[in-house]
Amino acid sequence: MAQVRVTVDGVNYADDVEPRTLLVHYLREQLGKTGTLVGCDTSNCGACTVHLNGQSVKSCSVLAVQADGAEVTTIEGVARDGKLHPVQEAFNEFHALQCGYCTPGMIMQAIDLLGDNPDPDEHEVREGIEGNLCRCTGYQNIVRAVQGAAQAMKPGATADRGAPAPVAGGGN
Amino acid sequence: MTATADPTTLEIGKARTRKEDARLITGRTKYTDSITPHGTLHLSVVRSPLAHATITGIDKSAAEAAPGVIGVYTAADLGVEAVGLPCAWPITPDQKAPQRPLLASKTVHFAGEGVAVVVARTVAEARDAADLVEIDYDPLEPVLDMEAAIAPGATLVHPELETNESATWVFDAGAAGTGGSVDEAIAAAEADPDSIVLKRRFIQQRLIPAFMEPRSAVCDPSGEQITLWAATQVPHILRTMTTVTLGVPESKLRVIAPDVGGGFGGKIGVLPEEMLTVVLAQKLGKPIKWTETRSESLLAAHHGRDQIQDITITAKKDGTVTGLDVHLLADMGAYLGLVGPGVPILGAFMFNAIYKFPAYKFTCTNVFTTKTLTDAYRGAGRPEATFAVERIMDELAVELGRDPMELRQQNWIKHEEFPFTTVVGLTYDTGNYEQATDQAMEMFDYAGLRREQEERRKNNDPVQLGIGISTFTEMCGLAPSRVLGSLAYGAGGWEAASIRMLATGKVEVITGASAHGQGHETAFSQIVADQLGVPFEDVEILHGDTQISPKGLDTYGSRSLAVGGIAIVKAAEKVIAKAKKLAAHLLEASEDDIEFSGGNFTVRGTDKGKAIQELAFAAFMAHDYPEDMEPSLDSDAVYDPENFSYPHGTHLAAIEIDTETGHVNLRKYVCVDDIGNVVNPLIVEGQVHGGLAQGIAQALFEEANYDDQGTLVNGTFVDYTLPSAADLPSFDTATVPNPAAATSNPLGVKGVGEAGTIASTPAIVNGVIDALRHLGVTNVEMPCTSQRVWRAIQDAKGNATQETPIDTHSPGAGLGSIDPNNPQGETE
Questions:
Q1: Of the candidates B21, B7, B18, which has an alpha carbon nearest to the alpha carbon of residue B680?
Q2: Kindly report the CA angle at B86 between B81 and B89, in degrees rounded to 5?
Q3: Set of chain B residues whose Cβ sits within 8 Å of the Cβ of A142
């Protein structure tokens, strides 16, 4: 067993894990963070995308022990004080989800994308979410939602959400 | 039917954002794999790596000794050797159906078939131990090619059946009396110098539904009713079929489909793994969970399509079609799925499509091979039919030197000819192909693109332009039970609904249609809000749990709105009738004088009235109600449709092909659909987008490839290339302003869930071929990857090309962030 100390969605955890445990399995099975989902076994689908120290990462391609000392944010930690993140709101507003299975990863990737590029054009959005597969939407409304969220997140568009800063580690 | 008075307040037609999103965008979800009752044990399946082999020995000892392992079981260990999974669609009385076991005992019939299972404390321990189960096989000859499989002397998949042919199903319009004899039409055309006979062969490649949520089942044997959670489209059918399969009394079984992450037909089966969780939960007295890996899913979950289509069309040289003859070979795979044999049969009634074929015949032979079984995949039979007829209409136009749209126009059913009874005997209630086509051609700039195409051809531009057309209709809203009965389908086609008027005025609606992404909770709430005159927010839609929703036939075949939604309307009408009676009593008026509008029951000509919420409370209190009624407004309905619904539309694709590399670029896609009245335009648009993506994926990206040993060679998301966001453009979609409302149901609605998939595949392929036709290319098989397109161009030029054995990759397609040329990095 290896020990891992990690902050997930603002809560500190110290756990013993099998060295081979993937971050996604640690989140789901040990912490009960079942909002993060598993869609494949080859790191292609992106359903398990979370933020590790503010950067999006497919949590099936990271060992839990690699997250030692890190801050992890999952889809469950994105809304703050009962207020949805603008990307979450935009996914609802633009009908960017159907079955919802790709949605947690897609939202986490979209937040990361907007952190790198606060005003992406359609092509940049499509390239930026290429690592996240969706079978329901044909991506069109996801692209619209990401662009819509970009507008909502522009400085001045909303009071306190301008910063493209990572959403990790809200609790500390 | 009553309705609210002020049309501006109507919910139907509003682009409501979805209720269900609130939990899905925050991770507050409950997919089956997230359900882990205390004490849950985990199941892993040991699968055959060979397509066809005799099992000569199984050594479980190492696995049994592995840490955390509760047990390792074969079919014999579990006493389920005689158990067979159900096939609910015997298409002919003499259909050959092998036993489909829970686990193979003597012979494996496809690569991926389960041979044993391991139950362990954790998933990881179960999977590790599964690798330790030693199975010895004696390989047998795989059976992979359908034509070879039905040739004399072929290796038999199931020797006891003495043939690889499961059934041959024929519909002959001449014999049925619904149209003319196609044999006569062909003979007449052959003898007539003013007629033409055209034959083409099309291949529907094998596809994988590839829903995003892997299949999963959890069975908890504690309590009086065994509870089975399953990632299924069909919880009700699953309950009944579990009883049929295992003998567990239906009343002792509760099936729950919690959040389900997509299905597309791929989750309408009754799975060996689901049955094994039930068997093992009963045996061990503990909850058992099984969740497949993606690789297992691609290998062993049912596949779709896989047909060889031989099509003959006859026409006058003036373009008037005179006959259509369809011969299909349909690959069933190793066994018959729940409705697998009937999938091609659903297409039998759609090859004639929107056209006035006077003569028609359909013959389909279902064939066994040693591959994963096939069953429903979005569209189920209708995409195949639409593809074939839309492809051959283009071929006919080329032969006759006609514009392909003009030729379609000449032959389609005119709007003034509805209702129209087709050559197969279906009555299309409404439609207006002219309206949808005119709108689509304008949005597309058809004339302008044709001019550009002409210029590019003239200039010998390395990038050529093709215009692909698909004018489709489909039959959906499955289905009138009597029609299903006449096709020997093993169930009816009704749907059930209940409305509970709660004491505080809120409304619970129970539907037997079980959603897995379609937005039922939102759309059905809109319907109920209008019907009862209650706020949208006050309506709660309950579904997917046989304890809550005891009666239902679930979600497939674009049936939820056109059947399930109408059942809700019928239940609401009963609620209103009861409320009216109670209102008359309380208001001391005659029932005939009570008017209902906008949620209020008023006495005509007075200002006296009661709101529906007040009446719900009065019924709950039951202090004062009429002698001849029960103190309740709650109502149930079961609705059996009298006809299918027939949505239609015109889809146009502009395809650019780099003739030097074969790269296909979908430059523009326009579709105008007529789906009758629209409940929620936002949801409709989403259904169309997703449908298009799947149909386009068949045309350009996806194919399940087997090697000559019967091994699936692209069984991961690395190489089964679902399109990513970067592979698709934005689509220009629209519905018509004056829809041809269905006359077969009170909302005038038609299905839309499968329309995009059904229509788009031929539009793309017609566009690809149209771009290359002048270079001598007459066909490109799907998926039209760069390699295949390039090779078709080279072949047409007479250049030899080297065949590469497996042809799945189109650059970038579906690889997520992994670049095939840079597999190391996820960075751009």
A1: B18
A2: 150
A3: 725
pTM: 0.95
Token pair in block for residue B54: 């005799």
Q: Are B129 and B121 in contact (CB under 8 A)?
A: no
What local confidence, expressed as pLDDT, does residue B9 receive?
A: 82
pLDDT tens for B334-349 read 999 999 999 999 999 9
Nearest to B717 among A20, A44, A122 (CB): A44
Residue intervals in chain B for CATH 3.30.365.10: 7-28+494-639
| Cis-peptide, bond into residue B479, ω within 30° of zero | yes
Disruptive mutation site among B19, B24, B267, B809 for chain A (greatest number of A CBs within 10 Å): B24
Query: What ipTM, to 2 d.p.?
Result: 0.95
- The mean per-residue pLDDT over the stretch B370-386 comes to 97
CATH number of B32-140+210-300: 3.90.1170.50
**Measured between alpha carbons, how far is B652 from B672 in angstroms, rounded to an integer?**
9
Partners of residue B23 in chain A, C-beta under 8 Å? 100
State how far residue A5 is from chain B, nearest Cα, in angstroms. 22
When CB atoms are compared, the residue of A36, A107, A122 closest to B25 is: A107
Cα–Cα distance list, B819 to A129, B416, B810, B813, B826 (Å): 14, 53, 11, 9, 8
Architecture of domain B7-28+494-639: 2-Layer Sandwich (3.30)
Residue in A44, A72, A102 to test binding to B, most B beta-carbons within 10 Å: A44
B-chain residue closest to A94, CA distance: B17
Residue B3 has pLDDT above 80, yes or no: no
- Say whether pLDDT at B36 is over 80: yes
CB B694 within 8 A of CB B757: yes
Asked if A79 lies within 8 A of B124 by C-beta distance, the reply is no
pLDDT at A3: 96
- Helix ranges, B679-754 (H): 681-700
Contacts of A114 (CB under 8 A, 6+ apart): A87, A120, A146, A149, A150, A153, A164
**In the predicted structure, residue B398 carries a pLDDT above the cut 50:** yes
Contact at CB, B717 and A97, closer than 8 angstroms: no
**Residue B360 pLDDT greater than 80, yes or no:** yes
**A72 contacts chain B (CB < 8 A):** no
First to last CA, chain A: 27
List the Cα angle B107/B108/B113 in 5-degree steps. Answer: 145
Between chains, do B24 and A42 touch, taking CB under 8 Å as contact?
no
**Residues of CATH 3.90.1170.50 domain(s) within chain B?**
32-140+210-300
Contact B381, B346 (CB under 8 A): yes
Query: Closest partner residue to B27 among A29, A36, A134, by Cβ?
Result: A36
From CA B378, how far away is CA B266, in angstroms rounded?
8
Residue written as tokens 């935009």? A90
> Which residues, in sequence order, are bridge partners of residue B119?
B43, B71
For B27, the closest of A46, A76, A125 (CB atoms) is A76
Residues B444, B652 contacting (CB under 8 angstroms): yes
What three-state secondary structure class fits B367?
strand
Burial of B293 (0-12, 13-18, 19+ CB in 10 A): middle
Chain B environment of A47 (Cβ under 8 Å): 212
Is residue B543 exposed (0-12), middle (13-18) or buried (19+ Cβ within 10 Å)?
buried
Length of chain A: 172
Query: Alpha-carbon distance B726 to B182, whole Å?
Result: 46
Residue A159 predicted with pLDDT over 50: no
